[in-house]
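One thing: could you explain this record?
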Amino acid sequence: MKPNSILGKYLTKQLIFNFIGVLLIILAIIFLFEMVERLRRISGNPDFGIWFAFQLAVTRLPKTAEQVFPFVMMIAAMITFWHLSKTSEFVVMRAAGLSIWGFLTPVCIATLIVGIINITMINPLSANLFSMFETLERRMDTKNMQALSFTDHGLWIREALDNENVMVLNAKSLHPENNELLLRGITIIETDKKNQPIRRIESFAGMLKDGYFDLRDVKIYIGGKPTVYKNNLQYSTNLDIHKIEENFTDPEAISFWELPRVISFYDKSGFAVERHQMRLYSLAISPLFLVAMVLMAAVFALRPNNRRGGVMYLVAGGIVTGFGAYFLTQVVYAMGISGNIPVFLSVMAPTTITMLIAISLLLHLEDG
């Protein structure tokens, strides 16, 4: 059946309508729980109010919603198929000579288009919102005035020297060597609590060692005083290479279009990129995973006689299958990040297995 036929448009319209309805309901429930959690976290803190909690809940919402996106599509498909079976529309379509594959073709194409729209248009917006969430949460949690940012513009560090002074460090490039970190093009600016500059330190290169930066070819600028030149300078810090690695930009805060460039930059810098590669591949394959979930929904919901087995069979089967697919995905993803299996294979395996199982069951039902 052609997707642009009258029946194809009807099925697509039913699926999209149910998908939007289920998505809005789940988003409302997620937002409610997020808002309660954020209000609990800021309770007793006079520096943050309800508006701040609302901002946290809204900017955190896209990441949580993205995790349940396949379940939303599966539930929407199950509702669509169950309604068609209940009203005997599916029986009429089969009696007219339409195969189950002809019936599912426009639905799968619509699902594929929804998945493509998600990664190309919705994902960049979600990534920006989640990046804002990380900034807001860091503002609330980092009360020692220490923050890290590692992007293609280099490394930025903000660290409290004491109760009065703050240090901001920028390194244009960096490269790990054993348990130390080589930095080049280093600029350090020290300010007081009113953000007034105290002194600026520039260094051609340096090493982040245990508890200090070992700076070379140093220039120290202080207002009203001559420039001081030093061959080396040990600058104290509480950071180490492991803390910097842990504070990389979260893959969920990077859009689908920016991930290849960020992966290339991290890889050239010598840092591990498995988490970011996993994120890129999982986004690229997500439209096919949505199609696999729709096919699995068809296994439970497309039955000529909907009285047999009842609605509980539909609900229980869908829930168990959805959680099974999610558990399989998380286990295989963890194996990919740990390096036990190739990253691309760890992303492809859950989608391929789910789709093959669904197709096999549908072939069995079709032959029956």
Q: What stands out?
A: The two ends are 21 Å apart (CA to CA). The beta strands are 147-151, 154-160, 165-177, 180-192, 197-208, 212-222, 228-236. Residues 100-141 form the longest helix (42 residues). Residues 147-237 form one domain.
